[in-house]
Design brief:
single chain; alpha+beta; Alpha-Beta Plaits; 4-stranded antiparallel sheet; 4 strands; Periplasmic nitrate reductase chaperone NapD; Chaperone_NapD_NO3_reduct; chaperone; cytoplasm
Amino acid sequence: MVISGLYIQVKEEMMEEVAKQLAALPGVEVHGCFPPGKIIIVLESKNEDDAHEMVSQTIVNIPGVLGAYLAYCNFEELVS
């Protein structure tokens, strides 16, 4: 499992709508919205490829998103 903390820069006037769209994505938890246009999220994914795909193919393509910046990443092995 990969746990990533990200800072998402958005157009300030679209922050509320972007936060709703982010929260609806699987594995995404919105931790806060801060003016002007900063959203903090945690992303949980199965592996680093899934995390990269979620950010580079989905999150950055949400209308109003200006950029997604990795602040923290932790790799954990699942114990079966």
